[in-house]
Design goal:
Layout: H1 12-25, H2 27-30, H3 34-50, E1 52-55, H4 63-76, E2 90-94, E3 98-99, E4 106-107, E5 109-112, E6 117-121, H5 122-130, H6 138-153, H7 163-181, H8 196-209, H9 211-217, H10 219-229
Helix pairs in contact: 1-4, 3-4, 4-6, 6-8, 7-10, 8-9, 9-10
């Protein structure tokens, strides 16, 4: 699949437009070397071909919005061989927070396995990229959920990441989450202690946006997340690892 995208022909104008958008908003992309940026752009454009975007009528759904939303998933999966969602084929962009009647609380985003749709509020997505060091990035957060849920739906030979690597991550994650629930201090925001699904999403946000602090404060958890995602954001130019 990785080699396949190199054979897909995209207009130079579209690749350049994608590059300029990412250079403006994505600090992760800015740190990549030229070859890695080229691969990131190709992966982004390929991903956009696989996903159906919809939006509320108040949103002018343009190429910039699609690229920025998609870049969160490409960033998370940049070290992995597979970077396509199978179960989630639709992304809905909302102009403001929304409420599920059965729950009654406002949402800025959610990943819904029943509807196979990822819902995101655009202003919150954009803010997540404009402030690159607060470990609050809605695109990365919701795509982290989608990564876990989508992987569960796949046949064994089509898994996105190795089950063994995820289980080793979970062992370290459970220890930190239990400590948080007992009132211990943590680099992660309190919401991470909600459950393991939320802990994973919050830890991935910190992995990319508070990398050095994460690596120093939680070296074992950081190492296992590097192994799971097959990348180390501390590596300038090319973060991917074998």
């Amino acid at each position: 699949m990785f080699k396949f995208i190199h054979n897909i022909r995209y207009p130079k104008s579209k690749k350049k437009a994608c590059h300029l958008i990412l250079m403006e908003f994505s600090s992760y992309y800015q740190r990549l070397n030229e070859n890695m940026q080229r691969i990131f752009v190709l992966r982004t454009l390929y991903f956009l071909k696989q996903i159906n975007f919809h939006s509320s009528k108040e949103i002018m759904l343009n190429f910039e919005i699609k690229v920025m939303v998609a870049s969160g998933f490409i960033q998370i999966t940049f070290g992995l061989a597979r970077y396509r969602l199978i179960h989630f084929q639709s992304i809905y962009i909302a102009h403001k927070s929304y409420v599920y009647e059965s729950i009654g609380i406002p949402y800025h985003g959610d990943t819904n396995p029943q509807t196979a749709r990822i819902n995101l509020v655009w202003s919150v997505v954009k803010k997540g990229f404009l402030i690159p060091d607060d470990a609050l990035n809605l695109s990365i957060h919701e795509f982290s959920h989608a990564l876990i849920l989508d992987n569960r739906e796949r046949m064994r030979f089509r898994k996105i990441y190795r089950h063994r690597d995820f289980m080793r991550y979970l062992l370290a994650a459970k220890q930190e989450m239990n400590q948080m629930r007992e009132g211990g201090e943590s680099i992660f925001r309190k919401y991470a202690a909600t459950n393991l699904m939320e802990f994973f999403a919050v830890s991935v946000e910190a992995f990319f946006e508070q990398t050095d602090r994460f690596a120093i404060d939680q070296p074992l958890l950081f190492e296992r997340l590097c192994i799971l995602l097959k990348q180390d954001p501390r590596k300038s130019g090319n973060p991917r690892i074998n």
